[in-house]
Design brief:
408 residues; 47% helix; alpha/beta; Tyrosyl-Transfer RNA Synthetase; Structural Genomics Hypothetical 15.5 Kd Protein In mrcA-pckA Intergenic Region, Chain A; single chain; 3 domains; five-stranded parallel sheet; Rossmann fold; five-stranded mixed sheet
């Protein structure tokens, strides 16, 4: 397969503005861009698909540019239902610098900030040089605008389309950028940029979209949906990243392998066959998690994720470093205590169990583990001496329910 056909097979092409895009991508030597607004100080797993599409195009001798919206991020792309809350200019600037470093470190792409060319445009020039090329009826017909008319849309949000179109014009005139790619929710903004370039210069530029990455219910894997998995390992650890992809739905794992990895069709077909014939082995899930963690966090991050996974499964929690322990317990209910106490009292006082009678039953039945070891002694003292690093008590109730008790 040539590159464009491979992108189609992987499910990475949705809308194209012109059939010529196929030959442009396959032949290489095309400068293209995609953008993101700095609404956080890290990109998340929803962005990763676009970053990897850019990497695929780059490997075929196309030149990628990532645009970070230092200007548009101060305005906010219209949401389908309500206006985005504005963040401070200081926060926008901080996020811009963080994203520049993250993308440069991970991918080495050229990064630009649309604030650099937007800050000099005054209001009158904006209306004369750009606003005059946008028919209001044309703007109202864009899907995202049309969906907001019932609830209302501010002039600020309404103007976002013009600002993004201006970006395409600037990059065309200054970087010879002739192609834009975005998630499918940006199709209206892409075509607005294409139209502006045509009206201002008489030249043609092009665009295509990538389907949004979702779970089986159609819910986006993105920050706005409240389920962000960050690319920054200080915000989402290697272990958390590994566990997220290890536990994706069976119905989605092959789709994610196609979109999130560089495995060949033959390799993915074999994993799909294994998933169908021997799903209990979870080979596709393990490979998906391995590929993503290794790509983002390196071999060391992957090995750490495996070590933590095995420690929790085998009960060898004491072998974890303090950082690995914290990572393993990220998201686990955490309770603080001030002084040593009897195991039964500790389980009740922390509300891990509801009564002393229930606590005694769980202990007697071998259903309570402390730091990886089953507890049968009803008189055991829980103190800093038997805490990990003189601070942490990892409690497992039953087979899977974990709690982290921390001494003040």
């Amino acid at each position: 397969m040539e590159l464009f056909e491979e992108l189609q097979w992987r499910g990475l092409i949705k809308d194209v503005s012109d059939p010529k895009i196929k030959d442009m991508i396959n032949s290489g030597n095309c400068t293209f861009y995609w953008g993101t607004d700095p609404s956080a100080d890290s990109l998340h797993i929803g962005h990763l698909c676009s970053l990897l599409v850019a990497k695929r195009l780059e490997k075929n001798n196309n030149h990628p540019i990532l645009l970070i919206g230092g200007a548009t991020g101060q305005i906010g792309d219209p949401r389908p239902t309500t206006e985005r809350p504005m963040i401070t200019k200081e926060e926008v600037n901080h996020n811009v610098e963080c994203l520049k470093k993250q993308v440069t470190d991970l991918f080495g792409y050229e990064v630009v900030d649309n604030y650099d060319w937007s800050k000099e445009i005054n209001f009158i020039d904006f209306l004369r040089d750009y606003g005059k090329y946008f028919n209001v009826n044309y703007m109202l017909d864009k899907d995202i605008i049309r969906r907001r008319l019932e609830t209302g849309i501010t002039y600020t949000e309404f103007s976002y389309m013009i600002m993004q179109a201006l970006d395409f014009l600037y990059l065309y005139e200054n970087k010879n950028c002739i192609l834009q790619m975005e998630g499918s929710d940006q199709w209206g903004n892409i075509t607005s940029g294409i139209d502006l370039v045509r009206k201002k210069t008489g030249k043609e530029v092009y665009g295509f979209t990538i389907p949004l990455i979702t779970d089986s219910t159609g819910k986006k894997l993105g920050k706005s949906e409240g389920n962000a998995i960050w690319l920054d390992k200080n915000k989402t650890s290697s272990y958390e990243l590994y566990q997220f992809f290890l536990n994706v739905e069976d119905s989605m794992v092959i789709d994610y392998l196609k979109k999130y990895t560089f495995l060949s069709k033959e390799e993915i077909d074999k994993l799909e066959d294994s998933t169908n014939k021997e799903p209990e082995k979870r080979l596709a899930h393990k490979k998906l998690a391995e590929e993503i963690v290794t790509f983002l966090h390196g071999k060391e991050g992957y090995e750490s994720a495996i070590k933590i996974t095995n420690a929790l499964f085998n009960g060898s929690i004491k072998e974890l470093s303090e950082d690995e322990l914290k990572s393993a317990m990220s998201g686990v209910e955490t309770i603080t205590i001030d002084e040593e106490c009897n195991i039964v009292d500790m389980l009740v006082n922390t509300k891990i169990l509801s009564s002393k009678r229930e606590a005694r039953e769980f202990i007697t039945n071998g259903s309570i583990s402390i730091n990886g070891e089953k507890i049968n002694d009803l008189d055991m003292l829980v103190n800093k001496e038997n805490a990990l690093y003189n601070k942490y008590i990892v409690v497992r109730r039953g087979k899977k329910k974990y709690y982290l008790v921390i001494f003040n």
